[in-house]
Write a structure and sequence with these properties.
The structure holds 2 protein chains of 2 kinds. Chain A is globular. In chain A, a hairpin with a 2-residue loop joins β4 and β5. In chain A, the strands form 2 sheets. In chain A, strands 1-8-6-3 form a 4-stranded antiparallel sheet. A 4-stranded antiparallel sheet of chain A has the order 5-4-2-7, with no helix packed on it. By secondary structure, chain A is mainly beta. The relative contact order of chain B is 0.19. By secondary structure, chain B is α/β, with parallel strands linked by helices. Chain B has a single domain, classed as 2-Layer Sandwich (BirA Bifunctional Protein, domain 2). In chain B, strands 1, 2, 6, 7, 8, 9, 10 and 11 form an 8-stranded mixed sheet that branches. Chain B has a 3-stranded mixed sheet with strand order 4-3-5. The chains are: A mainly beta, B alpha/beta. At the A-B interface, β4 and β5 of A face α4 and β9 of B. β5 of chain A pairs parallel with β9 of chain B, so a sheet runs across the interface.
Chain lengths: ~90, ~220
C-alpha cells in the first residue's frame, strides 16, 4: 500500500515551508529514515525523511514551492503501484 | 531520552579552525548521534546558507579573497552572513526529535540566549516580529541559522562582540540591503572584555537555561 509523504507541521506558528531540493529521484529505492528532500522554514533547513521503506513512486511538489503543513510532497510505495490512484483517493483530492 | 544537557560536552574551537572543518566536525557528531555545546570563533568567512541568492554577494569573488575572506556554502538555513574574529559563534547540537522540541522553539531559544547575554552588558536586545535574529532597535547584533538532520539541530547563532562593519558591507546580510549591523562593544553600557570572556558567560547562561528550556518544550 503506497503512502503519501506530506509537509510536516514544524511548529504551531508555521505558515508554509519551502521545498529546496530533491535528494532522491522518482524510481529510487528509499529506506525508512532516508533523507528524500530538503525543506526550509524561517532560518532552518531540514532534511525530510521517508517514513517507510519502498520506492519513490511520484514527486508531487516542485523545487521552490511554498507549501503548507499537510501538502502532498511525494508518494512512496512498491514498484508498479499506482501513485495517481493513491492521490485520487485522498480526501479533498 | 538523552541525558540532561548539563552533562553534555562543551567544546571550544578557536579561529585556527576553518569554517569548513568546523562544519565537518558538526556533521560527524550528528552522524554519531552526539549532542554538544560548541563555542567558537571563525577566521574571516562568508557563508551562503540554503536560501542564499547570487545577488547577495556585492563584489566579484576575487575581492573577498583579496580581503582575506574565504567563501563557503553552508547547509544551514538562511541567506548570506559573515563570521570572523570578534564574533562569538555558538553551535548547540541537540536531538530535537528525542527531546520533543520544535525547530522554531529552538530558533527562539537561540535568540533568547543572545537577549539574555546582552542584558548582562546593559544592552537591550529584542526580536523584531517576522525577522529572525537579535536586534538593538533596528541594528542587528545577532544571527541565527540551523540545519536539522536525523532529528538533530546543528549550526546555530553568531553574536557580534566587537565591531564588524566592513566585512558586512560586502554582502547583503540575511537578504536585507542596507542592514545596519552592530556589536556588544558598540552598544554596551558595561565594559566588554575579550571574546572568550563573553564566551564564558554564554556557556554559563546556556547550561543554566538548557535543562529548563528542554523540559518546558517537551512538556508543551
Amino acid at each position: 500500500m503506497a503512502t503519501v509523504l506530506e509537509m510536516p507541521k514544524l511548529s504551531d506558528t508555521m505558515v508554509t515551508a519551502k521545498l529546496l531540493n530533491w535528494l532522491k529521484q522518482e524510481g529510487d529505492a528509499v529506506e525508512e529514515g532516508d533523507a528524500i528532500a530538503e525543506i526550509e522554514t524561517d532560518k532552518a533547513a531540514m532534511e525530510l525523511e521517508a517514513l517507510e521503506s519502498g520506492t519513490l513512486l511520484k514527486i508531487v511538489a516542485s523545487v521552490g514551492e511554498e507549501l503548507p503543513a499537510g501538502a502532498v510532497i511525494a508518494v512512496i510505495g512498491k514498484p508498479g503501484e499506482d501513485a495517481e490512484a493513491m492521490l485520487a483517493q485522498r480526501p479533498g483530492a | 531520552m538523552p541525558d540532561r544537557f548539563a552533562e553534555i560536552p562543551v567544546l571550544r574551537w578557536t579561529q585556527d579552525l576553518s569554517y569548513e572543518e568546523a562544519s565537518h566536525r558538526q556533521e560527524e557528531r550528528v552522524s554519531n548521534g552526539e549532542e554538544a555545546l560548541i563555542l567558537c570563533e571563525h577566521p574571516p568567512t562568508i557563508t551562503l546558507g540554503s536560501a542564499a541568492e547570487p545577488g547577495d554577494l556585492l563584489q566579484p569573488i576575487e575581492y573577498y579573497a583579496s580581503q582575506g575572506i574565504t567563501i563557503h556554502e553552508s547547509p544551514r538555513g538562511g541567506k548570506v552572513t559573515y563570521h570572523g574574529p570578534g564574533q562569538l559563534v555558538v553551535y548547540p547540537i541537540i536531538n530535537l526529535r528525542a527531546r520533543g522540541v520544535t525547530v522554531h522553539g529552538h530558533l527562539r531559544f537561540l535568540e533568547d540566549l543572545m537577549i539574555g547575554l546582552s542584558e548582562r552588558y546593559g544592552v537591550k536586545v529584542q526580536r523584531i516580529e517576522g525577522k529572525s535574529g537579535a536586534w538593538v532597535d533596528h541594528r542587528k547584533i545577532g544571527f541565527v541559522g540551523v540545519r536539522v538532520r536525523k532529528g538533530f539541530s546543528y549550526h546555530g547563532l553568531s553574536l557580534n562582540v566587537s565591531p564588524q562593519h566592513d566585512p558586512f558591507s560586502g554582502i547583503v546580510p540575511c537578504g536585507m540591503p542596507n542592514l545596519h549591523v552592530t556589536s556588544l562593544q558598540e552598544e554596551a553600557v558595561r565594559p566588554v572584555s575579550s571574546l572568550w570572556d563573553v564566551a564564558d558567560r554564554m556557556e554559563a547562561l546556556a547550561l543554566e537555561r538548557l535543562p529548563e528550556y528542554l523540559d518546558k518544550e517537551s512538556a508543551a
